[in-house]
Design goal:
The complex is a heterodimer of chains A (about 250) and B (about 240). With about 250 residues, chain A is mainly alpha-helical. A two-stranded antiparallel sheet of chain A has the order 1-2. In chain A, helix 3 runs antiparallel to helix 4 and helix 6 crosses helix 7. Chain A is flat and about 60 Å long. The relative contact order of chain A is 0.16. By secondary structure, chain B is an alpha/beta fold. Chain B is built from nine helices and ten strands. In chain B, strand 4 and strand 5 form a beta hairpin. The radius of gyration of chain B is 18 Å and the shape is globular. In chain B, about 45% of the residues are buried. Classes of the chains: A mainly alpha (about 250), B alpha/beta (about 240). The interface between A and B is medium-sized, with 26 and 30 residues. Bound molecules: adenosine-5'-diphosphate and magnesium ion. The site of adenosine-5'-diphosphate has 11 residues of chain B, from helix 1. The site of magnesium ion (MG) has 4 residues of chain B, from helix 1.
């Protein structure tokens, strides 16, 4: 089930104005993505961990959600150190891991984990509707916001259809094997999924129009104003400056 | 709108799905101010299609749709009047897409220009009327079938419509909710078209039962006999001869 597990909460982070969270999440992500200095990246990771703690996210869920990224990183560690040319760092038989490869792997790992955690703490802690609303208030064009929101809605729809089809196959004794019958069934399932999803999407959109939808989303959520927002923004600005400073001092 | 104009009027409307047979054929239909119409016909006879044509969700290949005395020529016309007629979809899952119940019910009022406070007040009041107090923060996709159906009904009532089109509203309802829906419709006293196979429900909520045959609406005698028989088969349950 696709769920907005982190969206509802009463933590410090949840109480910060979503617009501020979106802006600083963007700043943080860009800065971390282009950062090179270990000091800056370690700072980023520390900050991301603090944010996750402050948002009081369920540790198990956070891990669960990180699995795809961690798997990707593992693959990276298996490949990069041995393929990037450079000074040898560790030699086993004919293979040798280069310093440059290891450094690159570290960088990528730190960056992706930091960004993932920060996004979980900052943007996954609001509902998609609130995110849309915040983006709209930040001047993102209405069409893009709508596209995002509707894509998000239909994701649920497609998932629900898939679960239904999958269940229908299972109750009739379908067990995935490596044979033609299994592959054909998969193909039918996917084909059916697209057909059903597009039908459903059309009806959902029709139902929305029947309730006066004209492309603009409103939300019942009000943007909280309070000390949490002020402290958050000060803290995040401080972090941005510190990370920039770490990069800058290293280059001069 | 003239006082005597029907709320809904279809004149010689035809429709076929792309590549399919003609589902609706030169259909004439009118819903007046005091009409409460039940529509009974076998699956696949075009009942749902008819409701969708009325609100301009489908475009007729010929004929004219008039709402509140005005001829509807395209999406521009329908946009203005669509929310005055509440359509309950056959599948409640099509209708509920907001994360929480209160957000879903408030979706219509917010779209029609109500402020946040007004929308909240209307939504709470509507939920209360439908016996759904306490459902505000429930997650819509985790509701039971019957609960979804009633919340979908709430999203329609919250629009404060002037007429109702209900597509099989009783599917999945338990006895108690069934009765509550009947009471609600009596209280709203709105002109309506109700598609249903539940004859006891129709006889409690509508005054006239029509059917569809070959893509047209008819009031045929056979249908009356059928309803009659059916009611008797229900045994001791109270019923009215339509
Ligand atoms: N989206 C669609 N595309 C193609 N054919 C459809 C579609 N929806 C319904 N039909 C066909 O149109 C006919 C009437 O459908 P419908 O109006 O849903 O009937 P009812 O509501 O009376 O059961 C059926 O034969 C159905 O197969
Ligand atoms: Mg139908």
């Amino acid at each position: 089930m696709i769920e907005e597990v982190f969206a509802v909460g009463t933590s410090r982070i949840h109480r910060v104005d979503p617009r501020h969270r979106v802006v600083f999440a963007a700043v943080f992500s860009v800065q971390t993505a282009i950062g090179k200095e270990p000091a800056a990246l370690i700072l980023a990771l520390a900050a991301a961990l603090v944010l996750v703690l402050a948002a009081r996210l369920d540790a198990r869920r956070v891990l669960q959600r990180s699995v795809p990224v961690l798997a990707f990183l593992m693959l990276l560690w298996l490949v990069l150190p041995w393929t990037v040319p450079g000074r040898p760092w560790l030699t086993t038989g004919p293979l040798s891991a280069s310093m440059e490869g290891v450094r690159l792997s570290w960088q990528i790992s730190l960056k992706s984990i930091s960004i993932l955690l920060a996004l979980m703490a900052l943007t996954a802690t609001m509902t998609a509707a609130t995110l849309g609303h915040a983006l709209h208030h930040l001047g993102v064009p209405e069409k893009i916001v709508s596209l995002l929101m509707i894509t998000y809605r239909y994701l649920f729809v497609i998932e629900a259809e898939f679960t239904r089809l999958w269940r229908a196959a299972k109750v009739r004794g379908f067990r995935p094997r490596t044979n033609l019958h299994s592959y054909r069934t998969y193909a039918y399932l996917v084909g059916m999924l697209f057909v059903r999803a597009s039908d459903r999407a059309e009806r959902v959109y029709a139902a929305m129009r029947c309730r006066g939808f004209k492309g603009k989303f409103y939300t019942l959520a009000v943007f909280p104003a309070g000390r949490d927002t002020v402290w958050f923004s000060l803290g995040m600005s401080g972090l941005a400056i510190a990370m920039a400073a770490a990069e800058w001092t290293a280059t001069v | 709108m003239d006082r005597t104009d029907p709320i809904i009027e279809l004149k010689g409307v035809s429709f076929a799905y792309p590549g399919g047979p003609q589902v609706i054929r030169h259909l004439d239909f009118a819903l007046h101010k005091r009409d409460r119409i039940g529509l009974v016909a076998p699956n696949g006879s075009g009942k749902t299609t008819l409701l969708h044509l009325i609100l301009g969700l489908l475009k007729p290949s010929e004929g004219e749709v008039r709402l509140f005395g005005r001829s509807m020529r395209g999406e521009k016309d329908f946009v203005l009047l669509r929310t005055k007629i509440g359509l309950l979809f056959q599948d409640a899952d099509d209708q509920l897409f907001n994360p929480t119940v209160i957000e879903d019910v408030a979706f219509g009022p917010l779209n029609t220009g109500k402020t946040r406070e007004e929308a909240l007040a209307i939504s709470r009041d509507t939920l209360h009327r439908l016996g759904l107090s306490g459902f505000e923060d429930r997650i819509t996709h985790k509701l039971s079938g019957g609960e979804k159906q009633m919340v979908a009904m709430a999203t329609i009532v919250a629009l404060q419509p002037e007429a109702l089109l209900l597509d099989e509203p009783t599917v999945g309802l338990d006895e108690k909710t069934h009765k509550r829906l009947i009471a609600l419709l009596a209280e709203l006293a709105l002109p309506c078209v109700i598609i249903s196979h539940a004859f006891d429900f129709l006889s409690a909520t509508t005054d006239r039962i029509l059917t569809m045959e070959n893509g047209r609406i008819v009031l045929d005698e056979e249908m009356r006999v059928h309803i009659h028989e059916h009611a008797h088969k229900l045994g001791s349950k109270p019923h009215r001869h339509v």
